[in-house]
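JOB MANIFEST
job_type = single_chain_structure
chain_count = 1
residues = 145
[input]
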Amino acid sequence: MNWGHKILLVIIAFVLIMFGMVYIAFQQNNELIDNNYYEKETKYQLLIDASRRLNDASNQKIFTQNESIISIKLPINLVQKFNNGKIEFLKNDDQSKDIRVSFVPDSLGVYNIEKNKFGKGSFTARVEWYNEKTMYYRTEKLILD
């Protein structure tokens, strides 16, 4: 085999590897965490302000879990005139497993969700509510097993 054949084999191998990489790249599923990401981006300052208000009122974790329940515990002083509560559990690697819930906490500011509605894995949990006309917001990471 002369050097011309060797160069041709190297070029063919290179082209095959490139086609393989292109095929693999097209098989990837690249999802944004939100469908309407760009619309939410324009309203992001409202979420920053709501998160800052909640952090000023309480730095405690909102989401806790045990074997069967995920508990959402809101600061008691921020739920007297509770209105329009929303919780989102966003599965980081599979958008089809996202869960969105409207909620109203009890008089102690607690709301429970059964864990059997969720799969195992990592979630981004977001809670948003209004007390009177003031918005409060927090994002936390949850790992469910």
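[summary]
The two ends are 58 Å apart (CA to CA).
The helical segments are 3-27, 37-42, 44-57.
exit_status = 0
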